[in-house]
Amino acid sequence: MHYVDLIVEKHDHICTITFNRPEVLNAFRRHTYHEMLEALADINEDESVHSVLIAANGRGFCTGHDMNEEPQPPELRLSRHAGGRKYSDICEALLQLRQPVVVAINGWCAAGGFGWALCCDILIAAEDAKFYNPQIKLGYPSMPGVGALLNLYTSPAVTKDIILGRRLLNAQEALDLGIVSRVVPNDQLLNEAQSVAAKMAEVPPDIMALQREMMNRIWIGQAGTYTSLITGRDTAIAGHSLPDWEEREANWKSETRDVDIKR
Predict the structure, then answer these.
(1) Is residue 143 exposed (0-12), middle (13-18) or buried (19+ Cβ within 10 Å)?
(2) Burial code of 208-235, b = ≥16 C-beta within 10 A, e = fewer?
(3) How many domains does the chain have?
(4) What is the residue range of 41's domain?
(5) Residue 261 falls within a domain, yes or no?
(6) Is 263 part of a structural domain of the chain?
(7) Does 108 fall in a domain?
(8) Do the domain assignments include residue 192?
(9) What is the pLDDT along the chain (263 residues), one digit of tens a residue?
(10) Residue 189: CB atoms within 10 Å
């Protein structure tokens, strides 16, 4: 597949997926969903890939859905082609990969980008990383990646503060709360993430796949997270289908945000 929004490279048993829309802080559009699903399906079937690294070009990791993309027609918002459904498919694909996934987070990691990061195994943040989840201000629920997974990392109180209170976290706060496992200087982020991915690629892939599946079944499966992903997905899609959703979104865009994600 020819990728536009992503750069996909395989080298030394590591597949690196790089978000490549730096002009919009790597906000994703509906086309990005198709590319991500294609890339993850290919990785899962490729026995030469032993680990995965997700990174981003530019000043930010990912700020969620591109708010400037034209909304889908109403008849598609509850269909299998709905953006929220495709987003959730990517969350599930990340969680179910045979290979472990390292994510290198720089700058803004917000909304759906935050959710995708939480679906990975080892989260490494640069010192300038910022974590934010603003969806509820738009008038619809948080996307399922954040809503379902964040509580596994923190506590109900902190999760509600981030989702309901729209608490902005810096890299050190994310480390203290257990959301990321490492914080490194900005110029060392990619080298650190590559080093971790290389170390995991040394493990026999069948053993790594069994280990990852066991942990996800115990920690995520028993916690009901897969069910939460589906429920959260459908709730978010329903929120997008509200008759006044476009008006709410337009009003939100025109307001001065309490946290300005500058592009």
Answers:
(1) buried
(2) bbeebeeebeeebeeeebbebbeebbbb
(3) 1
(4) 6-187+200-254
(5) no
(6) no
(7) yes
(8) no
(9) 789 999 999 999 999 999 999 999 999 999 999 999 999 999 999 999 999 999 999 999 999 988 787 765 555 555 555 556 788 889 889 989 999 999 999 999 999 999 999 999 999 999 999 999 988 877 666 665 677 788 888 888 999 999 999 999 999 999 999 999 999 999 999 999 999 999 999 999 999 999 998 888 777 765 555 555 555 555 555 555 555 555 655 554 454 444 556 65
(10) 23
What's the pTM value of the predicted model, to 2 decimals?
Answer: 0.85
Name the one residue in this structure whose structure tokens are 């115990």.
Answer: 218
125 with 183: CB under 8 angstroms?
Answer: yes
Amino acid identity for residue 182 in this structure: R
Residue with tokens 């509820």: 136
DSSP state of 243: T
